[in-house]
Amino acid sequence: MKTYSTWTKPSASQHMLKFFRHADPETKHISRAAEVFQKTLRVLKKKVKQRYNQELTTPAQEQLLSWKHLKLIAELSKCPPTSPATCRYTHLYKYRLISGLCNNRQNPRWGAANTALVRWLPAEYEDGESEPKGWNPERLHNGFQLPPARTVSREIMTSASKWKDDSYSQLLVDWGQYISHDITLTPQSTSTDGSDVDCLKTCENVHPCFPIKSGIRQALQRQQLNAMTSFIDASAVYGHNQKLESFLRDLPGRNGKLAVNARFKDPKGRPYLPFVTKLPSACHQDLQGERVECFSAGDNRVSEGLPLTSLHTLWLREHNRIAEALKHINGHWSPEMIYQETRKIIGALHQIITLRDYAPKIIGPESFKHYIGPYRGYDPSVDPSIANVFAAAAFRFGHATISPILCRLNESFQEDERFPHLRLHNTLFSPWRIVKEGGIEPVLRGVIGSAASAVSTDMLLADEVTERLVVLDTLKQMDLAALNLQRGRDHGLP
Length: 494
What we know:
globular, about 500 residues, 2 domains, mainly alpha, Haem_peroxidase_animal, heme binding
């Protein structure tokens, strides 16, 4: 369950966060079923307390509820089956399913979209089941009350200045964000009664709002879904379900290509990503010109920042370039085969860039050699599902490397006089700057030609992301560090 509300008055920026963490119908169905399951357990707990005048703790629930009972409650809650999916062998079986199912034919759901993030340690909730740390403000942890996430951010995390690390370019940071979106997405939950509680208008801890101010026990504890596949498979380009995949494809063209924007092209006639279908979208607008809606891609966070949008655009163009080349070489191929073979190549490129160029620079070449090393073939015994602690904590280290300035450079890799550098908060959810300010090239040259922000214990997150994050036409801002802390508590991270 995940919604955030930091202030008593709702802000457009909070609406923006909700918009870009909106769950697709399948994810929403699973989320609601899980909430019915959790509510049923709470009702049982209450009934036992009323009848026996005894508080039912999690160990007692384990004794009260057998696996048979849990399975029955799950079925009545309309939770999706956890039994192995059926993997059908067709002429397309050699290609990845868009959902990630059947990557492992012995355990078809491992790593698939809309499955739970895995736990390396049991979750730590205040009630043992679902209440995040800090849900009950008076509860002590190690003898102390938990400080508000915002207080921790302001006193420990925020840095007014950042210095550069000349060893790495800003592209390293932006690729990290891009690839994290390829493998993780925990959408916002709905309320337990099936309607959205307005978390913008409450400062109370009421499901599913948590405002900022294995064994049976695992089955009883609230888990979080990963809406994306856990594989580096370019699902950020192609989507993670058939409906989204079909929308992103140029099916009428029968050419194996992806759909492109019907309204705008860059200064050299190259395509942009298509717009979202739900209009008007929530993205910022150029008040002096025509509307430019949020872009659409395999991941709905595509418009969060200009470098992210630029990378998505680059992969769209690369898919269509490769598809055109394959069609020319193999004129007998069907549109479906052209599409699938191109998708296979694009997925491989994502893996190569991540494992050859990105990961060794993050954990160091020696650690990479020791813990990962060369590819030794497919191992069906390994569960590839993303760990909760990785998605909600470890991989968020990259937030400390975010630069407060987005550089835009001309063809000589100097500051572009027409399109000068921008403060980060002026680039968020602003796809109009891509369309109307020179395309993706000034941005890509900027991230390649500028150094990444260095990380040190006394300079963690730039105040651009702790004081000015996701700003619309409002005085209210969000705090990325506080959101990260609150997310960790919400996920029950030990």
